[in-house]
Amino acid sequence: MKLAEALILRSDTQRKIQELRFRLQNVIKIQEGEEAAENPSDLFRELNGSLDQFETLVQRINRTNAVTELTQGLTITDALARREKLEMKRSVLSDVISTASIRYDRSSKTEIKFITTVEISSLQKQMDELAKEHRILDTRIQELNWTTELVERV
User: Fold this and answer.
1) Which end of the chain is more exposed for a tag (fewer CB within 10 A), N or C?
2) pLDDT value of residue 102
C-alpha cells in the first residue's frame, strides 16, 4: 500500500469512528418500552475494530514518515514539521496584517488616534514567500506520498 493510500484510509477510518460515536449517542438512551435502533454492543465492537485499525495505520504512517527522506537528511516527518511551521507563521502574519489594516475613524480631535507600528507591505511580501514555500513543500510531500510504500509493522 502506498503512503497516500494509507493517509486516505486513515481519514476514512476517522470519519467512521465519528459516525460510530454519533450512532452510539443515538442508542445509549431510549424511552422505556422502546427498542434501540441498533445494538450498542455491536456498535462498540465495530468501534473497537475501527480504533485498532486507526492505531495500526497511524503507527505505520509515522514509521514510514520517519524513515523516508524527502531530500538528503530531510525526512517526511521533518518536512511535515516545517510545513506546519510555515502554516502557523502565515496565520500569525495574516492576523497581524488584518489588525494593522483596520482603520479607526475619529469623530472628534479628543478621541485617541491609533497608528500602525508595522509595515503591512513588508509583511504581505513575507506572507507571499511563505505561501510559495508551503506550496512547493506540500507538492513534494504529496508526490512522495504517492510513490512511497508504507512500511510494515515492526
Assistant:
1) C
2) 80
